[in-house]
Specification:
Layout: H1 29-40, H2 42-56, E1 61-62, H3 68-72, E2 80-84, H4 109-122, H5 137-142, E3 144-148, E4 153-154, H6 166-178, E5 185-189, H7 191-194, E6 206-210, H8 230-238
Parallel strand pairs: 2-3, 2-5, 5-6
Antiparallel strand pairs: 1-4
Length: 245
């Protein structure tokens, strides 16, 4: 009897984290020392141990490249920082950039409101669907660092990796940008993002605060996201166009 070929049930899909090896997560050279230092630290070791345990237990973790924002936007190119909280937890959504979803994925409500405000503020129409759809890769390549403060999540479990160590790395990234030679624009939407203000030198950088673009808060006082005008302020200061294609 010939060999029976069976599928490898443990091969992760392309849209999920395949391993807990930072060597598989490329970053731009300007971030490398910071990233290496983090993963060599006790906190970094603890985070990797946690990720390995969860993967061994069969957890589906997103995104496949947790450090993709650092690969697409080198520190010397950063002109705007948009802070998110943690990746989308639905299959096929997260692509390693805050608020961004993979091409062809239906727009999450927060991203839909971001595009509405972009059109109201700058007159830029929503990007064509399915490509790029809700993908903000073009922003990242213009110098917009789309940084979640927690960089992994488990399927269907929002904030499941909060408090596991990612904050130590992303806080260090914010500090590095704040200490950089050039002033940048920080766009802080919602209480979680605004909790990072102490890491930013507000005397050197433009810090823009508003409610989160989620439908639950986007239009509420005291600082509604809808109508905030952040994109025009950031464009005028940073010269980023915010074009999506």
């Amino acid at each position: 009897m010939g060999d029976v070929l069976t599928p490898d049930l443990f091969t992760p899909a392309a849209d999920q984290l395949p391993s807990a090896d930072p060597g598989d997560w490329p970053v731009a050279p300007g971030w490398q020392a910071l990233v290496d230092g983090f993963f060599a630290s006790p906190v970094g070791h603890g985070l990797l141990a946690f990720l390995r345990l969860r993967l061994a237990a069969g957890a589906v973790i997103f995104p496949p490249q947790p450090l993709r924002a650092l690969a697409l936007t080198p520190p010397e190119a950063v002109r705007v920082v948009i802070l998110g909280q943690d990746p989308y937890h639905g299959r096929g959504q997260a692509e390693g950039l805050a608020f961004s979803v993979a091409p062809g994925v239906p727009l999450p409500p927060s991203l839909r409101n971001i595009f509405k405000e972009l059109e109201r503020d700058l007159g830029l129409p929503p990007p064509p669907f399915p490509v790029p759809g809700g993908s903000l890769v073009h922003w990242a390549r213009q110098g917009v660092l789309l940084l979640n403060t927690c960089l992994t999540v488990e399927e269907g479990q929002p904030a499941s990796h909060a408090g596991k160590g990612w904050d130590a790395l992303t806080d260090a990234i914010i500090r590095q940008v704040s200490a950089g030679a050039e002033p940048v624009v920080f766009m802080l939407w919602g209480a979680h993002a605004q909790s990072k203000q102490a890491l930013i030198d507000a005397a050197r950088h433009l810090v823009l605060c508003a409610n989160h673009p989620s439908p639950r808060s986007a239009s509420r006082p005291p600082a509604p996201f809808m109508g905030c005008g952040h994109f025009s302020q950031a464009r005028d200061r940073s010269k980023v166009s915010f074009a999506t294609v």
